[in-house]
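Narrative summary of target 7.
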Amino acid sequence: MNNRVSAFASLSTLALLFACSSPQPADAQNPPRSTAGFAPANLSGLAVATFAGGCFWAQEEAFEEIKGVKQVVSGYAGGTKANPTYEEVAEQTTGHTETVEIYYDPKVVSYQKLADVFFMASHDPTQLNRQGPDTGPEYRSAAFYRTPEEKKMLEATIARVNAAKKYDGKIVTQVVPFQKFWPAEDYHQGYYRLHPENPYIAHVSAGKVEHVRREFAKDLKSPL
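Modeled conformation, tokenized:
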């Protein structure tokens, strides 16, 4: 196996008993959801990128660490149901996939750089309808573009990564127009940092974040 993707294989082996799931807070029948969607209070000068690469816990943390990224929100996109719950998405009745919305300063970090992080480090884009131990279309890889320029950039990045044979297989990421992003429940936001003791975080998510840190060390807010 290509040593550049062996990390993902080892993650799958270690995580057979774990899954990207979180119990609903015991004191709430309806988990709280921020009506503000956790977007930055001041959007002036910021751009937005939307990617889906498996469990949003690791994706959120990975992009949060990139210089120029102001805020990352975990949520759902790509489906048809309005304001879906985590349980509905997990039941595969909504068409949504776990997604992160990235608010960034384009003067500091480019969309191209974020696409590189996404396709080259934050997840395995060759896995169809799954990521490691998490299986199902709600974990599919997808890149949601807002402009024709973003679409061209995503397609060119896929072609470049495939040509470089970074992975054993071809990239299967969906490149689709952005329609709507629904923020996940409050307890999912910042989950990686709030729950380092969670077995899934320790055995699966941490490996993905570390991979981004190694591959994009010069682009981190706090360089290694």
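The chain is about 30% helix and 20% strand.
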